[in-house]
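Here we describe the complex-level prediction in full. Unlike the single-chain runs in Section 2.1, the two entities below were treated as one system.
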Amino acid sequence: MTAAGDTALIALDWGTTSARAYRMRRDGALIDQRHAALGVQHVRPGEFAQALGALLGDWSALPVPRLACGMIGSRQGWIEAPYSRCPVALQALAAATVRTPEGEVAIVGGLTCVDDTGVPDVLRGEETQVAGLPDDALDAALVIQPGTHSKWTAVANHAIAGFSTYMTGELYAVLREHSILGRLLAKGLFDDAAFARGVDAGLQAPAGALPHQLFAARTLALFDALTPAGAGDYLSGLLIGHEIAHGRAWAARHASAAASTWLVGDDALCDRYARALAQAGVATLRGPADAAARGLWRLARLSGMVV
Amino acid sequence: MTAAGDTALIALDWGTTSARAYRMRRDGALIDQRHAALGVQHVRPGEFAQALGALLGDWSALPVPRLACGMIGSRQGWIEAPYSRCPVALQALAAATVRTPEGEVAIVGGLTCVDDTGVPDVLRGEETQVAGLPDDALDAALVIQPGTHSKWTAVANHAIAGFSTYMTGELYAVLREHSILGRLLAKGLFDDAAFARGVDAGLQAPAGALPHQLFAARTLALFDALTPAGAGDYLSGLLIGHEIAHGRAWAARHASAAASTWLVGDDALCDRYARALAQAGVATLRGPADAAARGLWRLARLSGMVV
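The structure predicted for the assembly as a whole is:
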């Protein structure tokens, strides 16, 4: 048990489905954490202060600053913390937090940039995980955060230069649950060979190929070239391969040549991406599991909220 | 009213959801047609003869041959009519029909080929629509049949050289109905400019771009660069643009340089493809609305079933 007086910051990773609170010590170490199914989509407007009380419990009484990131700062959240336009120094991101009306919490804003075809892109929450990488990584890094909407982020000199989003996880989920492909798939042990074959098809795909390759995934399963469990891993590899093909070309234009490639996020998903990236000749490092807490700590320090 | 004695063939386009019967005259003209919701998925095994009776009604008594195409020849249909491997002459396709056990109907088989990456591809039913093009078109044609699973088919010297399938329509449907994109879309009048913008994004897309572009479609809508109705047409154009980018490259390798490009299928969808193909610099001709009936007539002639 650590004395409450050791607490210097309550860091809040507050997303769409759940909320997580971290109690952090003067030296940045994590003392304790709490979580609740009080994500933004589960809290009614006007009831965020109450939700915060439920999440924090007796931590509510601690006289320390609170810094939050994630969808809590979206239009559907407690208060909108505007998007900063890339490139954005972490120092500037830390200075741009927005306070809730009664001052309960400061919230980190999201980022926006414009892709190479002139289309806007957005992220919210991932910027803070990026800030949670080790100090020297922030000199030059390419950070890949796999998920429903994967993010590739280029970091240089402790600033976020730009990023690119991929709807890979969601595409996999809707195809698996709602398309003709889903009927051919079965859950099973990870099929390494089928996954690698899918990644290869994605990496090698010419422009426009995905609608054809999705049908090909079906015929591979129909013609018994893939097992029902393997077909799911093939599809997963195929979509990840596409993301990597585009992401690598994007990174070649936007990330420093000196950048190391970091994976941050769910362990099993990062394992898949590490395999796929290795297949593409890209070595990866793994970010810390508590990247959001570490990032909130860094931003709190940069903002002067903790000293 | 035409005398029953004029009837030379009953042609059956029998698919997954519905069945259509055509009564055809000695000169190949269509006399009359009937349809019923008796597609393969609505008929229990062992009840196809009964379903045929219900579809044909008093035509059942006509002493003329009957030729069917479509999913009625699949493993889930009346009897399996095997896939022929491309290239296949229409003459050979006509010779490879399979009769039901009691001889009620002859059924045209599907086609299979292997794509440029070694993956099998299949079609069933579309081969007969291709055979329904005008006689001289069959010397050299690229036939595009848009739909849930679009088909691009290369025809040379009255033979089907090969084909390529795209899951474009199904991808559009699952994204529209089940992804985060669907929440931003609304039905409305066709938005020509949004569609054209989507097509352009699809045609210009570098390898692997689709997972990124799907997220970009969302931000375009979020940032009010697309109306809710326009976002649906943008997505449609984007996916069709991808299909065309891949299909054109495929056709350059597999279709004759002398081939005209034909669109066959649903009118509204063919209109969309005609616009998108024009944007890619490809002029198109429109196949006949009754392509399946005409194709069955041609195959019946080639098989000697009608003289």
